[in-house]
Structure of Protein-methionine-sulfoxide reductase catalytic subunit MsrP:
Amino acid sequence: MSDALGPAIPASQITPEAVYRSRRELIGAGLASPLLALAGCTEAKAPAAPSLPKDSPDGFRTADVQTRFADASSYNNFYEFGTGKADPAKTAHTLRTKPWVVVIGGEAEITGGFHLENLLKEQTIEDRIYRLRCVEGWSMVIPWQGIPLAALLKRFKPTSKAKYVAFTTLADYEQMPGMAYNSIDWPYREGLRIDEAMHPLSLLATGMYGRPLPNQNGAPLRLVVPWKYGFKSIKSIVRIDFTEKMPQTSWNRLQPEEYGFFANVNPAVDHPRWSQATERRIAGTESKLFAKRIPTLPFNGYGKQVAHLYKGMDLRRWY
Ligand SMILES: Nc1nc2c(c(=O)[nH]1)N[C@H]1C(S)=C(S)[C@@H](COP(=O)(O)O)O[C@H]1N2
Ligand SMILES: [Mo]
């Protein structure tokens, strides 16, 4: 399988798991210490304030506590393999990820079917540590390996008519047992506006935690768009089309009042059936059953990098 993933990931790029405490925990600790001093704890000198680990300014690496590989690969949404969060890890072994062909179509000078290994050839596999916030209310912090989406898209020379990029997942009843339930109008489809697709944070992932992507996480090629709800991060991609019109997307088609095209993480806009103000952060060594609730940040904390893309747009209307 590693052949289909292109060049092997150098060991030097592999990130150790769960090395930092979350920024939010540290903020909480900072508030508590002056109170302790007042309470007469003069014996023990307050330790020098630790230098807080910070997210990299480009957003490529968050310093938040990482999710364990075991959690990130066993609590998934991948409806082609069942609607339960534990289903994909149990059933996705039937997905054949090699050979894997991706069809590039639409408004571009170069189109056609391409073997994944050729698409990845001459591309540098980069390391990113991103938060991913599911619309259902949980979030994870995952080290991904992949190529910037922009680097791949530019190779096909999109024309001036390419205003959007549409993505399609494999749809094969034989390999994907969850398709039989018809929970979604298959194939699973997602889309981005071209400027969102070209943003440096948009990643086409081929691996996570320094290993090839597990099938349940969208092998061999999946999108990761960290400032949007998780459903935009489409898995097991077999088609990428440049389009002039806003493409149809699966969740938006199913429930347009609940899932918009943009789906930017926004604590101020509730889902019609629940609040989006907080999230259950599955990270570190605690069982995911006890995952802490933390406030959800606008654009999932990536506002500094992406808010300019939406200047002048009413984000309540364009949810
Ligand atoms: N093809 C496909 N892609 C998909 C989904 C799906 O059901 N089918 N679920 C989405 C949702 S809702 C989420 S939250 C993320 C979960 O990604 P993860 O399992 O790697 O955390 O995948 C997204 N990509
Ligand atoms: Mo999700």
Summary: The two ends are 38 Å apart (CA to CA). The mean pLDDT is 88. Residues 11-44+55-310 form a domain with the Sulfite Oxidase; Chain A, domain 2 fold (CATH 3.90.420.10). Residues 76-80, 132, 134, 140, 169, 188, 217-218, 230-231, 233-236 surround MTE (ligand 1) (CB under 6 Å).
